[in-house]
Give the backbone structure.
Amino acid sequence: RKEVEQDPGPFNVPEGATVAFNCTYSNSASQSFFWYRQDCRKEPKLLMSVYSSGNEDGRFTAQLNRASQYISLLIRDSKLSDSATYLCVVNDGNTGKLIFGQGTTLQVKP
Amino acid sequence: SAVISQKPSRDICQRGTSLTIQCQVDSQVTMMFWYRQQPGQSLTLIATANQGSEATYESGFVIDKFPISRPNLTFSTLTVSNMSPEDSSIYLCSVTTGGVGYGYTFGSGTRLTVV
């Protein structure tokens, strides 16, 4: 079983749609969780951290369920510029290493 | 967050040769990491670059193939040795300026093609 699993997609949605990405992780001792965004031929960039209480940043909402070892990202009112690959990332608290999911590709169409 | 200068940004190399990739950070950082991203794949950690000691390699990666230097808290190099076409990939360095709860910043990557 992969340490961090995501549905690779692609997700093809129209502008204005709401889309949700899911992610599961295998190490129950993981301490920190993130969503990164990676545009084509670019490096990954931190989109947002994920907290147990849930957190929101504009159109983006992230949720963490530690009991289920499940992370989600919700994007509301999708824009063309949201088209990218979204990486679910888990930090191994013992080593400080980041473990990456395989990424979910989003394509927002006009 | 830290600003990372990674170079070269891309290179095309002959098989059997070696390439050294450099990462310079604009501030002192405790932890630096080297990742590989193969075409169409996610990121795989190669090693953690430790200042003043040997790097810590992940399973499947060895020092002879990927020697790493970390002479100080702002700089590291990764060498891809005796290259083969299978080494064609994007190589990225990454740092964190905070603790384990903080996100990481990535260099812009080195796109390597081995012919």
In short: Chain B is about 0% helix and 50% strand. The CA atoms of residues 62 and 86 of chain B lie 15 Å apart. The two ends of chain B are 36 Å apart (CA to CA).
